Recover the amino acids of this structure.
């Protein structure tokens, strides 16, 4: 995925982005802007071609959807110009009328600067300060050599130079049932918004690809993309030989008329890519490393086939109560609290995995399920529409399955939920490797010394690799898969 890099110092000071850019140059071609006085500098790393001349005072990573532009999706120079116009007309309240997946920075002639991140944190952004200069970058690794504390830019927030902190412009919608919303109307509106989300994310895109695991979420996105795209879509599926993902993805691709691309791998290839996965992921969490491996291999596969923009089904589990362990909870309040926790931490967990694995290969991966208007709608659904019959034999993502059963076919639509690493067949490959590599004594001794919890031998195996790349100081930035309550 592309990335935004910038530095803002005082007038008369010189700022240099080159050291930051070099650390993440794999994200795309660099488009850099520097003032004559060189007191600030901005750069966007992207291989996505867009219309319009680029603004000299703004840098946009991603795309914006402006409500006053009748829902037009704007990238690059067009997006930068429209944002500056919107900012001039509406001030900082302009963010109420902007959706999209973006990180943006802009500067004024008076030395002012503004930085903002999209509402749910699809686009990554971190910051650090050193000697009065504020640096921002899309990955932790770009800021490490500053030897200053690194923090994540909060999703749905902006910062103005001179303020002491980031200001939230977006707040997660409350989960409140709308009694006037019938199941029929809910399905219809959900389909409309999800179709719009896909349309927005493929508008003006060339060399589009869709990740297809054959699970519900990716299948819904692939089916909609196939319907909306004027050209035949290409789908990308990976797994070990004989994996369930490959089987189900083949069924769906044939049904929607997509051009399928399938890649199989084995444990030797997993071990070969593992250090690179952890380096790019910037995490050692066992669950995220496991699921990142097939993501990394799939992204490499798609990039080698000339893709530039990908669609993913990420985000559906978080908004439609798709995680299996939610079925074991006793009350609606517990389940709602877990879903809230998923969404609040998504930028440091699933979205980080999606970003890093795709950016490692210069790809921009977009997330239709996380369109804010769709999230707001789903937050009005009763739990039973998401986790149907949760007190007896619950069916996860029930309303989504029901709404798209005709397009997907019953076999795919009602396929039981599996994590990506399970469906691709890679979930057990590394556990046995770690078990052989680390003795019980080593595990006890090493984990007693680690400054963070390392929960099993497999995670310690990953932690060792992680620490070979990253200092202890970044450990607080590592998202962890754990129950939120």
């Amino acid at each position: 995925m592309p990335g935004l890099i910038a530095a803002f110092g005082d007038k008369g000071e010189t700022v240099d982005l080159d050291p930051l850019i070099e650390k993440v140059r794999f994200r795309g071609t660099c488009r850099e802007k520097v003032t004559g006085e060189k007191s600030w500098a901005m750069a966007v790393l992207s291989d996505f071609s867009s219309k319009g001349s680029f603004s000299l005072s703004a840098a946009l990573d991603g795309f914006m959807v402006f409500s006053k532009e009748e829902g037009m999706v704007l990238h690059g120079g067009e997006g930068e110009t429209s944002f500056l116009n919107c900012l001039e007309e509406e001030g900082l309240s302009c963010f109420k009328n902007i959706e999209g997946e973006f990180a943006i920075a802009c500067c004024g002639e008076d030395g002012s600067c503004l930085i903002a991140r999209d509402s749910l944190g699809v686009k990554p952004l971190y910051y650090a300060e050193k000697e009065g200069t504020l640096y921002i970058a899309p990955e932790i690794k770009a800021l490490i050599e500053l030897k200053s504390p690194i923090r994540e830019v909060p999703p749905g927030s902006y910062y103005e130079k001179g303020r002491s902190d980031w200001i939230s412009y977006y707040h997660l919608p409350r989960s409140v049932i709308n009694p006037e919303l019938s199941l029929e109307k809910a399905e219809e509106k959900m389909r409309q918004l999800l179709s719009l989300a896909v349309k927005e994310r493929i508008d003006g895109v060339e060399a589009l690809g869709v990740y297809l695991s054959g699970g519900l979420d990716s299948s819904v996105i692939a089916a909609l993309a196939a319907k909306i795209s004027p050209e035949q879509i290409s789908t990308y599926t990976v797994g070990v030989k004989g994996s369930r993902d490959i089987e189900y993805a083949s069924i769906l691709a044939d049904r929607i008329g997509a051009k399928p691309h399938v890649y199989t791998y084995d444990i030797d290839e997993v071990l070969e890519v593992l250090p690179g996965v952890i380096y790019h992921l910037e995490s050692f969490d066992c669950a995220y490393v496991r699921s990142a491996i097939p993501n990394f291999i799939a992204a490499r596969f798609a990039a080698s086939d000339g893709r530039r923009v990908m669609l993913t089904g990420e985000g559906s589990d978080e908004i439609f109560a798709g995680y299996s362990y939610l079925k074991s909870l006793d009350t609606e309040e517990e389940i709602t609290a877990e879903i809230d926790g998923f969404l609040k931490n998504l930028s440091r967990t699933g979205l980080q995995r999606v970003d890093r694995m795709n950016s490692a290969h210069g790809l921009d991966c977009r997330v239709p399920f996380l369109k804010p208007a769709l999230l707001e709608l789903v937050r009005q659904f009763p739990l039973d529409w998401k986790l149907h019959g949760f007190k007896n034999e619950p069916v996860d993502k029930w309303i989504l399955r029901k709404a798209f059963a005709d397009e997907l076919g019953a076999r795919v639509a009602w396929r039981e939920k599996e994590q990506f690493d399970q469906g691709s067949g890679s979930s057990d490959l590394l556990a046995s490797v770690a078990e052989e590599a680390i003795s019980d004594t080593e595990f006890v001794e090493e984990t007693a010394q680690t400054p963070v919890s390392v929960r099993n031998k497999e995670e310690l195996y990953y932690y060792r690799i992680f620490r070979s790349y990253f200092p202890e100081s970044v450990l607080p930035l590592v998202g962890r898969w754990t129950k939120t309550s």
The first helix runs from residue 18 to 23. The CA atoms of residues 8 and 110 lie 13 Å apart. The domain at 183-477 is CATH 3.40.50.620 (Rossmann fold). The longest strand covers residues 98-107.
